[in-house]
């Protein structure tokens, strides 16, 4: 989750001339930039490790080693608050100098071998891992600010791209607002109890799809003719132009970023009037990175969970785990509901079989304690 920051955009000073900056297209620099994608907009503490022979500094920031120029007075061993404001043309940090002036400095991959004396192997490997795993936040591409500075040339004044300014404004607007990572429905999925399951499933899919959470991907589908403009017009971003400049729109963008980062979608609302439900689905990457012999790592599975509370049966929870063609179902219920669920377990298994999704296992147990979801 991105920590919120109330950092405002203020005029910045000129950057110092960078010492022999790596070309933007250099493979090491590209990997370094990707490793920092998840930090855009974050307020970080930079730990100054050492001053290099060319006058630049080696800084540990967000678990990654970076090489950058720093304001006068910087000393090894000290910490320096900084904010990553853009990734293009190079990762650029905003730093407050001794006189309170905000200055921006470009960062680059440290020289080969420079990191080893200061970071352990785990920290050195963290940058590579982040570079391989950077996903959604790296897809928020900032517009180019200016042509890259030539090595040895005096740096031009650094300005923020339009995208970086919008993201900074969004983070500022979200500050102090109620933070949530769940789609909260305003209307019930069905008008009355007893609606067919397929109707409820279609209504839930529709509610999540039109929540605005996947707006950008839907725009891409519209651009290729796979989605109509009328469908796109039902999403919040189309109904509320300039949504990024109001708190509700900022919260939605924040939720989009969290969804991408956590690979998780959550929905809360009424199945029918008076019947509350909470549902979530999350990609299961529990065995990601584990060795699988000569075989390729399996595709990540999915986990889904929902909770319902009935007047007579109490709270019932269901957790589904799907990996490949293996589907496991765990039902959690109290003393009132457990006998009823067990009595109808065979019917449930037969229905799943008939639907073409047979259960690999079915377990009925007591509700999990709070904090053990």
Tally of discrete structural domains: 3
CATH topology of the largest domain: OB fold (Dihydrolipoamide Acetyltransferase, E2P)
Helix content estimate: 25-40%
Coarse morphology: elongated
Question: What ranges have pLDDT less than 50 throughout 5 or more consecutive residues?
Answer: 1-20, 120-156
Q: How can the largest sheet be summarized?
A: 7 strands, mixed
CATH superfamily name of the largest domain? Nucleic acid-binding proteins
Strand line-up of the largest beta sheet: 7-8-9-10-11-12-13
Care to give the gist of this entry?
The chain is of the alpha+beta class and 373 residues long.
Secondary structure: elements and pairs:
Layout (H helix, E strand, L loop, with lengths): L26 H9 L7 E9 L5 E5 L2 E5 L10 E8 L5 E5 L5 E7 L12 H13 L2 H4 L22 H13 L8 E2 L12 H13 L5 H9 L5 H4 L3 H4 L7 H16 L1 E9 L2 E10 L16 E10 L3 E10 L2 E8 L4 H6 L1 H10 L6 E5 L8
Please describe the structure with a list of short key phrases separated by commas or semicolons.
disordered N terminus, 11 helices, 373 residues, 27% helix
Your description of this structure?
Strand 5 and strand 6 form a beta hairpin. With 373 residues, the protein is of the alpha+beta class. It has 3 domains: 118 residues, OB fold (Dihydrolipoamide Acetyltransferase, E2P), CATH 2.40.50; 85 residues, no CATH class; 80 residues, Transcription Regulator spoIIAA (2-Layer Sandwich), CATH 3.30.750. The longest helix has 16 residues. The strands form 2 sheets. It has a 7-stranded mixed sheet with strand order 7-8-9-10-11-12-13. The chain has a 6-stranded antiparallel β-barrel with strand order 1-2-3-6-5-4. It is built from 11 helices and 13 strands. It is elongated.
């Amino acid at each position: 989750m991105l920590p919120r920051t109330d950092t405002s955009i203020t005029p910045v000073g000129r950057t110092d001339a960078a010492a022999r900056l790596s070309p933007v297209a250099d493979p090491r620099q590209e990997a370094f930039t990707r490793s920092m994608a998840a930090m855009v907009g974050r307020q970080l503490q930079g730990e100054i490790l050492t001053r290099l022979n060319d006058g630049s500094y080696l800084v540990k920031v967000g678990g990654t080693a970076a090489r950058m120029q720093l304001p006068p007075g910087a000393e090894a061993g000290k910490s320096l608050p900084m904010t990553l404001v853009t990734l293009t043309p190079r990762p650029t940090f905003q730093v407050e100098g001794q006189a309170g002036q905000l200055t921006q400095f470009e960062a680059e991959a440290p020289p080969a071998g420079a990191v080893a004396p200061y970071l352990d192997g785990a920290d050195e490997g963290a940058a590579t891992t982040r570079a391989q795993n950077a996903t959604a936040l790296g897809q928020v591409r900032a517009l180019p600010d200016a042509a890259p500075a030539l090595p040895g040339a005096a740096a031009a004044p650094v300005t923020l791209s339009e995208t970086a300014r919008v993201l900074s404004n969004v983070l500022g607007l979200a500050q102090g607002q109620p933070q949530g990572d769940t789609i909260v429905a305003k209307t019930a999925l069905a008008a009355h109890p007893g609606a067919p399951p397929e109707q409820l499933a279609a209504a839930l899919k529709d509610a999540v799809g039109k929540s605005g959470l996947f707006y950008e991907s839907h725009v891409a589908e519209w651009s290729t003719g796979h989605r109509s403009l009328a469908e796109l017009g039902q999403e919040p971003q189309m109904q509320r132009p300039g949504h990024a400049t109001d708190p509700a729109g900022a919260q939605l963008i924040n939720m989009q970023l969290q969804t991408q980062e956590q690979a998780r979608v959550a929905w809360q609302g009424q199945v029918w009037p008076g019947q509350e439900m909470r549902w979530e689905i999350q990609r299961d990457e529990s065995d990601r990175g584990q060795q699988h012999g000569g075989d390729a790592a399996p595709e990540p599975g999915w986990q889904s969970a929902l909770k319902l509370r009935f007047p007579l049966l109490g709270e019932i929870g269901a957790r589904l785990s799907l990996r490949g063609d293996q589907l496991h179902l765990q039902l959690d219920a109290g003393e009132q509901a457990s006998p009823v669920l067990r009595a109808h377990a065979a019917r449930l298994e037969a229905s799943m079989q008939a639907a073409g999704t047979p259960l690999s296992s079915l377990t009925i147990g007591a509700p999990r304690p709070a904090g053990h979801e």
